[in-house]
Amino acid sequence: MAGQTETVLNALLEGIDRGRLNPGDVIEEAPLMQIHGVSRTPVREAFIQLESAGLIRRLPRKGAVLFKPNLEEFLAILEVHAKLEGQAAGLAARRLSSHNARDLEAAVVACEDYAARPGPGDPAQYYQLNMRFHEVVALSAGNPVLVDMIKTNARKLMAYYRARYRYPGSIADSALEHRAIATLITDHKREEAEALMQRHVQFDQVTVMDLLAAVG
User: Fold this and answer.
1) Nearest 5°: phi and psi at 121?
2) What's the CATH class of domain 71-215?
3) Using CA atoms, how far apart are residues 2 and 89, in angstroms rounded to an integer?
4) What is the per-residue pLDDT across 62-118, written as a single tens digit (0 to 9) for each?
5) Distant-in-sequence, close-in-space partners of 72: CB < 8 Å, separation ≥ 6
6) Do 132 and 100 contact (CB within 8 A), yes or no?
7) 22: which residues sit within 8 A by CB, 6+ positions away?
8) Which class does domain 2-66 fall in?
9) Measured between alpha carbons, how far is 148 from 187 in angstroms, rounded to an integer?
């Protein structure tokens, strides 16, 4: 049963990560049971775990709805998320291994190469590269608890960060900031890396309102 619950849970998390599930989407139990060949119990157990993480709200006899923050909730989550991301960058600047340094450089180059392509680019495709950059920074911090906290908070905001890359110039700006953050980390400048990462993931209130409207 535990394996079945994990299968459903991982499928739903991947749906969030890949943008197949977005804020406000209703997740019904029956299709999940059919797709994964499981009973109702593993589906509901997966829902319980997602609800405890604040990613969904269960609906009586109807499944669940993916968490959709209002303005106040968004700003509160963003404030915490920026602190966590900043802390990860600061710790990475202290603890960066040679292996993580190679992964970090590869992630930055991938973002830079995509940003250099002609045309506006695909926000969803670039966001996957962006996620990899932030994942490498978090892993470089050497703190698994911090990594899990960042992942959980990021999943509440992913649709909005993805929407941000629809704005002209935002992909190029993001790639430039990734390079600057990576340089600070590899130069072991902890305070500077932490501060720049916090600014990198933050939005002002007007932008937040625009993103809330854009996601719908």
Assistant:
1) 85, 165
2) mainly alpha
3) 34
4) 789 999 999 999 999 999 999 999 999 999 999 999 999 999 999 999 999 999 999
5) none
6) no
7) 66, 159, 215
8) mainly alpha
9) 26
Contacts of 59 (CB under 8 A, 6+ apart): 26, 65
Taking phi over 0 as left and psi of -120 to 50 as alpha, with beta for the rest, 25 belongs to beta
Closest by alpha carbon to 106, among 82, 151, 140, 157?
Answer: 140
pTM for the model stands at 0.89
pLDDT of the residue at 92: 98
Token digits for 8? 């459903």
Where do the CATH 1.20.120.530 domains begin and end in the chain? Answer: 71-215
What is the model's pLDDT at position 2? 67
Start-end ranges of CATH 1.10.10.10 in the chain?
A: 2-66
Please give the structure tokens belonging to residue 61.
């006899």
